[in-house]
Amino acid sequence: MTVIRALSKCVKCAKYLVLCLLFSQTIFANATSLILISPVDNFISYKEQVLFKGRVQDISSLKLNGKDVVIDSEGKFYFKESLTKPNTYHRFEFKGKDSQGQDVSLSRKVFYKVKTVEYISTSPKKMDASLLIVSP
Question: Strand pairing partners for 62?
Answer without folding.
Answer: 96
